[in-house]
């Protein structure tokens, strides 16, 4: 069942100062469904933070509509907006913890002003600390915690009031890769356990790949490409999207190394260097061996990578096909007709940009 929880309709945000006018968000339409983990990726300055601040109206749009939980936020009274905001938790890159308070009290602070009894508050804080794996740190201070632990406190605090939506704005950007992974796992777990919708803002495509179900790529205030994570990773359309994906496969770096190999430098006219991206059903087929059976073309595999993304295989191969000029061409035509994306590589031109 897909039910929208966040809808941004033709939203724009313009910042005007004396010197310049910045169109931080430029006519964006975006729908995020309940229970989704929706990633928004883009370089610094793309407008991601401004865009997600629209979701709780910390940022007012210059034009357009913001609909959250079926409520048009721009039509709410201040009081209604405050209530609505309680249903949206947020975590940040720099944790924003209160250093003079214990971990317990940092989390308890989020429950201030609720009508819970003292005991209920205590129970809730303990439950939250347990959920994020920090029960033994209740009486410690933030300065005694690692970055990953601090972010766990941030998460406990953000979900204290049972929000429907959790916005994560670069929450793993200050963390090392291993800690990043454990925080992403925690977010994934919370999404599954609590059914919370997560909006994951990041400049790291790897983070999107790990837990997001859908992704939007943002550039200069616009969403330039959007889809399921599998769809975007298997068939990206825009070059910016491809370069983000490249950061996760590191295929471009692999190619740089391959291009220095003697056999790759000196291809004969009966040889072709190809990158094959294959996905979904195509990975069941014995494609490479059938090239020899069908066309007497042999394939020398220089690099191969296959991984599971959202339960589906996604792979890359770099191969040299050898045969007669005609048979190699026939093999190429055959590959092009299969569900494999074929890119001919030309080492002498050093072309690595067209890849995904
Ligand atoms: N309060 C503000 N006043 C003026 N310009 C801003 C403000 N906030 C953001 N910007 C500008 O808007 C653009 C988008 O910023 P931001 O949303 O922070 O991008 P991101 O989060 O993708 O790095 C940038 O050019 C930034 O300088
Ligand atoms: Mg930002």
From TrEMBL:
Keyword Iron: no
Keywords on record: Amino-acid transport, ATP-binding, Cell membrane, Membrane, Nucleotide-binding, Translocase, Transport
Ranges where the ABC transporter domain occurs: 6-245
Family annotation (InterPro entries): AAA+_ATPase, ABC_transporter-like_ATP-bd, ABC_transporter-like_CS, ACT-like_dom_sf, MetN_ABC, MetN_ABC_transporter-like, NIL_domain, P-loop_NTPase
Segments forming a coiled coil: none
GO molecular function terms listed in the Swiss-Prot or TrEMBL record: ATP binding; ATP hydrolysis activity
An example Gene Ontology CC term for this record: plasma membrane
Family membership noted in the UniProt record: Belongs to the ABC transporter superfamily.
PANTHER family: AMINO ACID IMPORT ATP-BINDING PROTEIN, METHIONINE IMPORT ATP-BINDING PROTEIN METN
Function according to Swiss-Prot or TrEMBL: Part of the ABC transporter FtsEX involved in cellular division. Has ATPase activity. Essential for cell division and viability.
Protein name: Methionine import ATP-binding protein MetN
Organism: Xylocopilactobacillus apis
Gene: metN
């Amino acid at each position: 069942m897909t039910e929208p929880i966040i809808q941004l309709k033709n939203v724009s945000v313009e910042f005007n100062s004396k010197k310049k006018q910045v169109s931080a968000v430029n006519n964006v339409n975006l729908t995020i469904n309940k229970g989704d983990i929706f990633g928004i990726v883009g370089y610094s300055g793309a407008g991601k933070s401004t865009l997600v601040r629209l979701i709780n109206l910390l940022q007012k749009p210059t034009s357009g509509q913001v609909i959250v939980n079926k409520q048009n936020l721009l039509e709410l009274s201040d009081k209604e907006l405050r209530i609505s905001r309680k249903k949206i938790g947020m975590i940040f890159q720099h944790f924003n913890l209160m250093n003079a308070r214990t971990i317990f009290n940092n989390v308890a602070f989020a429950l201030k002003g609720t009508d819970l009894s003292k005991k209920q508050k205590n129970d809730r804080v303990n439950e939250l600390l347990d959920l994020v794996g920090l029960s033994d740190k209740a009486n410690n201070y933030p300065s005694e915690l690692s970055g990953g632990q601090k972010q766990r406190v941030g998460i406990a605090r953000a979900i204290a009031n049972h929000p429907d939506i959790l916005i994560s704005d670069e929450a793993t950007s200050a963390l090392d890769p291993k800690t990043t992974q454990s925080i992403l796992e925690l977010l994934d777990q919370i999404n599954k356990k609590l059914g919370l919708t997560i909006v994951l803002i990041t400049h790291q495509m790897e983070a999107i790949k790990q837990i997001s179900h859908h992704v939007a790529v943002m550039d200069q205030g616009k969403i330039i490409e959007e889809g399921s994570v599998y769809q975007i990773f298997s068939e990206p359309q825009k070059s910016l999207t491809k370069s983000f994906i490249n950061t996760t496969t590191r295929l471009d770096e692999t190619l740089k190394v391959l291009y220095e190999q003697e056999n790759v430098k000196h291809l004969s006219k009966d040889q072709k260097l190809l990158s094959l991206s294959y996905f979904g059903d195509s990975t069941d087929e014995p494609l490479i061996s059938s090239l020899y059976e069908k066309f007497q073309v042999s394939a020398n595999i220089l690099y191969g990578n296959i991984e599971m993304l959202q339960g589906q295989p996604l792979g890359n191969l770099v191969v040299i096909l050898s045969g007669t000029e005609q048979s190699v061409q026939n093999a190429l035509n055959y590959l092009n007709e299969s569900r494999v994306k074929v890119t001919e590589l030309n080492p002498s031109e050093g072309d690595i940009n067209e890849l995904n």
